[in-house]
Amino acid sequence: MDKILGTSETVVRNEYSAETDPREILRTAPMSRNQIYGIIITGLLSALDGYDLLATAFVAPALAAQFGVGPGGLGILLSSGLAGTLFGAFLLAPLADSVGRKPIVLISLLILILGMAASAVCDSLTQLAIVRLFTGIGIGAMMVIVNPISAELSNARNRAFVIAIKAIGFPIGGAIAGGLAALLVAPLGWQSIFIIGAVSGIALVPLVIWKLPESISYLYERRPAGALHKINVVLRQFGHKPLKELPAAPSNSSVPYLAIFDARHFVGTLSASLFCLLSWIAIFFFLSWQTKMLVDAGLSMAQAAAISGTSSLSGAAGVLFFAFAARRFNERLLSVASVFGLGIAIIAFGLMPASVWALGATAIVVGGFITGATVALYVVTTGVFEARMLATGSGFVIGIGRIGSAIAPWLAGVLFTLELERASVTAIMGAFAIAAGLIMWFMPRLKSEASAVKL
Questions:
Q1: Looking at the structure, do residues 118 and 204 belong to the same domain, yes or no?
Q2: Are residues 273 and 172 in the same domain?
């Protein structure tokens, strides 16, 4: 591992000048074992996010049977957790700029633990929907904060690799939830899945407290009380000599939201937002309804959960495949192919006969394309926004995408309530992904015309 990541127990220690940026030290120096431990923890947190977010979907057939609800009520339940991620991303996560990233990570983790524990004792669909909404707040905040932490803990040489490894955590967590649902729901009930999730979260608390450092970027840029001392504590943990003083605080380079709607960026912002909205509707429809559709097709609960978990696991393989393929093929064309492939695969899933092998194979293909479609979002935003406004632009676009993710399960529930067949619903939802692919395909042309747009 040390040779792969260029890590070392003994990091070269230099005397630093008064102008030394501590972020630059981490960017250029070999990685220490404590940095690797921190990255592993972010991967485990991402896996817990994936486990919790998909757990409800994997036990949805058991919930529908116990509470006697139809597709409409089930759609509301499945949307509630995703709606909570909106509140977490926009209300809780921004507090990390005021109190630090590590405290918000801990708060988010505690929300997940409490939410999963409370989910296990709910005795009505309404109670469960409220609890899942609450739990989603923790998931949404965690997803926003953990990504930059994992990138910051890596040096420049390994950053892309580290981000890819961290991204694998989410589908692996979903795969674990699916595997456990296949084994435990029948003998122990759906509550067992949430209990295991809560216990797993409790096990992560001491790791976060003792091994996940506070963000040096936050300490350096925000300068809370005792910033120099706190930065030096982190530097020592990573094997570096402490700084004697900090250089002048960097100026606030944030870009206002109005800037992404100026004449130059308007069409690009609109196109990227529509792409994210439409593709996430397709993605989260499938993630939320896949297990229920499999059961409705005649498969057992264990078979459906096992297929759903394997589909999620194929997403982890998709991360590695996309990272490998992107080094040899054009990223934009690869992303377009992934989004088109997602739409076609979802439509094909609806056309498959009620066969374990046919439905299972198609679901695994969909899971792989979901990864490519997710990565495509980052290809889109980097193509539309220059570096100085990338954070603002991508934040807005992802916010629009979260709206799509929240309404997708509810919309599918409405369609199923109208007694549309699986083939019809998947055709509609797959069309969202195909439309997103068309938007991405024509986006370079739209971007070039953006300068001509007059507001």
A1: yes
A2: no
CATH of the domain at 173: 1.20.1250.20
Separation of CA 195 from chain center: 22
Q: Among candidates 168, 156, 172, which has minimal Cα distance to 35?
A: 156
Other Cβ atoms closer than 10 A to 349: 26
DSSP annotation of 238 reads T
As a whole number of angstroms, the distance between CA 328 and CA 204 comes to 38
Q: Return the number of other C-beta atoms located less than 10 Å from residue 453's C-beta.
A: 16
- CA angle (321, 395, 20) in 5-degree steps: 85
Domain assignment present for 103:
yes
pLDDT tens, the chain, 455 aa long: 554 455 544 444 455 554 578 888 888 888 889 989 999 999 999 999 999 999 999 999 999 999 999 999 999 999 999 999 999 988 888 888 788 889 999 999 999 999 999 999 999 999 999 999 999 999 999 988 887 888 888 888 887 777 777 778 889 999 999 999 999 999 999 999 999 999 999 999 999 999 999 888 888 888 888 888 888 888 898 888 888 888 877 766 556 778 888 888 888 889 999 999 999 999 999 999 999 999 999 999 999 999 999 999 998 888 778 777 777 877 778 888 999 999 999 999 999 999 999 999 999 999 999 988 887 777 777 778 776 676 678 788 888 999 999 999 999 999 999 999 999 999 999 999 999 999 988 875 444 444 333 33
Query: Is 84 part of a structural domain of the chain?
Result: yes
Token code pair at residue 295: 């059961």
Do 298 and 323 sit in the same domain of this protein?
A: yes
Residues 362 and 243 in one domain: no
Residue 289 identity: W
Domain end among 198, 220, 248: 248
Confidence (pTM):
0.86
Nearest to 401 by CA among 77, 144, 187: 144
